[in-house]
Amino acid sequence: AELTHFDATGQAHMVDVGSKAETHRVAIATGTIRMKPETLALIQSGTAKKGDVLGIARIAAIMATKRTSELIPLCHPLALTRVVVEFSVDAPNSSISCTAQVETFGKTGVEIEALAAVQVGLLTVYDMCKAVDRGMVIDGVRVLEKHGGRSGDWVA
Amino acid sequence: AELTHFDATGQAHMVDVGSKAETHRVAIATGTIRMKPETLALIQSGTAKKGDVLGIARIAAIMATKRTSELIPLCHPLALTRVVVEFSVDAPNSSISCTAQVETFGKTGVEIEALAAVQVGLLTVYDMCKAVDRGMVIDGVRVLEKHGGRSGDWVA
Amino acid sequence: AELTHFDATGQAHMVDVGSKAETHRVAIATGTIRMKPETLALIQSGTAKKGDVLGIARIAAIMATKRTSELIPLCHPLALTRVVVEFSVDAPNSSISCTAQVETFGKTGVEIEALAAVQVGLLTVYDMCKAVDRGMVIDGVRVLEKHGGRSGDWVA
Amino acid sequence: AELTHFDATGQAHMVDVGSKAETHRVAIATGTIRMKPETLALIQSGTAKKGDVLGIARIAAIMATKRTSELIPLCHPLALTRVVVEFSVDAPNSSISCTAQVETFGKTGVEIEALAAVQVGLLTVYDMCKAVDRGMVIDGVRVLEKHGGRSGDWVA
Amino acid sequence: AELTHFDATGQAHMVDVGSKAETHRVAIATGTIRMKPETLALIQSGTAKKGDVLGIARIAAIMATKRTSELIPLCHPLALTRVVVEFSVDAPNSSISCTAQVETFGKTGVEIEALAAVQVGLLTVYDMCKAVDRGMVIDGVRVLEKHGGRSGDWVA
Amino acid sequence: AELTHFDATGQAHMVDVGSKAETHRVAIATGTIRMKPETLALIQSGTAKKGDVLGIARIAAIMATKRTSELIPLCHPLALTRVVVEFSVDAPNSSISCTAQVETFGKTGVEIEALAAVQVGLLTVYDMCKAVDRGMVIDGVRVLEKHGGRSGDWVA
């Protein structure tokens, strides 16, 4: 095994994907933000009537998928065909999960775009609630599934 | 307690910081990526001689601090005066930690910039190693300390 | 009278604001999008319970103020201190108005940022409703007020 | 009728265009900026010999089409194949119109890109002339025609 | 002598400028593009009546100064107060020179912004003429002068 | 011969490439930065053990290819499939060369992206070494080869 982002002399490059097939590619990523119960209560009350933290975080997450290749040095630019972002509240654990599904028809996968969506979605939650809870922690950011491309299906 | 990013009617806004003092502000954030021991070994061998994953991730993390206000909807744009990003390898736990310290002289804090640096730094590690280890997990992304501004010092 | 964005030989430049005072500057801009009554009804039902078009348009408008100097060639970059965006529904005229107030402490005004917020806010409404009403029209985009700086107050 | 940018539960998403055909798509949009006659005269004299307001606004309009998906939250990124922007002076009405034609071969249309070009083109005119005429108004920004894709031709 | 962009252990960082004074800073950079005489003739005819290559290159150069810190990893973001870009034709040598003057009031200098303006201005000339002259060469891109800041005046 | 970026009336446009074939396109560009021998020595010592100027410049160069169409007004956006950037030290001439190879499968070429990579790579070297050598000069930035597309192969 070796890291494909380096050539034989150890120099970084943007890997050649020119000969790869344009296929339907899907990636699903997830992650969680833990907070105080009273912070969670504030977010939940807002979602129901006003002050929609999760609605704003969803927009930020979707928009982040379109900027991913600007942020990650060796990531290929891709024209995404679908982005879905969901948040779910876990009251017993006083946390919120974010799950992002990203799709394209292209020569390379979209795991990084899905992970970026989750990261930016959860960071937006942090930003909007930090005045009341600076100790929130983002955990478990990872890929759940990917489909399409030469390596085929992968499930965590 | 209420969320300052919403006005009395529940509409989101970019909070007025016009009357806040321009002070020296510092934020330190951290986070970890867990991986297989053989992935960690690949990264470590690269750092020592070629294929410098962590050097590239550090650059990505630093650059991300300059784009944070573009990604996070209600985050104020700020002229940063210092960014330091460090990675440390924890071989027993087969993980790598990233810590970012961001500073400015301005009207609002830089916690979000520090967290964004950590997120993008760790996501760059994921990107560069994903071909050998798709199951890596990013954990414990949080603020460690902040200093300056009306709310003064805060330590996790 | 002459156009300050050109020098004596007619060449465009980014005007020298170095000797201008850093003062509190405010600009308020507005604009309207006209649509079919049934489109307006769809937006209103969404705002009340789900499918919040105007909440998303507000976020897009706020974020646009942070990118304005990238879009408008001779516009100075500025660190904004406050952005407020409001939408109001005018059912009799089957239209929605967007008003944006932008503030900074700086050497130049923020009218262009306020107008950009209105334009992007209304364009986001168009984007989200275009599948049901391609004939929507954006009208009356203009500055309502500006305050601060050498030219002082101005009201339309 | 319903708004396609929301799913059944009212959550916003970037619509799945993966199964749509890659076809030749064209959109034409237009809009107008009204100003004082003396402002129009200044612009016209510049176009003829120096201080080319409309030449600069055209470049800004063209460049805006390449950033549209960054500004409009649920807009798909697209590789544009052609952008043409024209300005025409209407002296009797003391106004200038901007018309933009945008084309692509892709899975979704380019109306939003054409509208963004018009908006940014007219806002650049405003920016360059605001020192002499702060009361200019942007009106009638709308799509004139679109061609290609499942919904076929549409003319205003 | 040592490179300030690295700390004692050789890790890159964005240098701490927090304690530096906010002073008036100026940088002037220049560079040249050499081409075939017939290419130069085409550009010159355009400048006089239509097809204004240099007018467009000037706009691109000015806009590039606002994006410099996004492109150069360890460059601090700065709010520029003035940008002037000039082109001059050297017919005997069949070349065009670009000179950019950039100014700010800030904690660090603007040499990199001035050089970026020159590079992007000349690259825009290349882009617009490449169909008739692919062999053009950009030469002599360098700083001519800088003023302000702790190191004071410097002239090449 | 005429400049294709202007229409018959001299107005700039983004050229229609809709009818061009999607082919494999390659461009190779190069350029050089000249410096004092002691600056070169500092860079070389860093590359060997710490303070890796050229590794950072390589990342900046690769990332610049993804932003090129944002910087160059009439340049088409393209999904790149490969980017390789190399630096070579010429000790006798006290200079460093940068060579970039960029590839895509698309409707237009990638010479501008390759030149942008070289420019940003060399400017990053300047930025990192400017504290010890402000007089460095960037020379000889040009296209070496291009392949693919209607005009076929071209070698300088």
Within CATH, the superfamily of chain A carries the name Molybdopterin cofactor biosynthesis C (MoaC) domain
Rg over C-alpha atoms of chain A, rounded to the nearest angstrom: 17 Å
User: If interface size is counted as residues with C-beta under 8 Å from the partner's C-beta, which chains form the largest one?
Assistant: A-B, 59 and 60 residues
Count up the domains of chain A. 1
How much of the polypeptide of chain A forms β-strand, as a percent range?
25-35%
**Number of DSSP helical runs of chain A:** 4
Q: What spatial order of strands do you see in the largest sheet of chain A?
A: 2-3-1-4-5
Helicity of chain A, in percent? 25-40%
For the termini of chain A, the CA-CA separation is: 20 Å
CATH class of chain A: Alpha Beta
Largest sheet descriptor of chain A: 5 strands, antiparallel
* Overall pLDDT confidence of chain A: 93
CA-based shape of chain A: elongated
Low-confidence stretches of chain A: none
Q: What oligomeric state do the depicted chains represent?
A: homohexamer
What would you call the structural class of chain A? alpha+beta
The second-level CATH architecture of chain A is 2-Layer Sandwich
According to CATH, what is the topology of chain A?
Answer: Alpha-Beta Plaits
- Element-by-element helix/strand order of chain A: EHHHEEHEE
Quantity of strands of chain A, as a count: 5
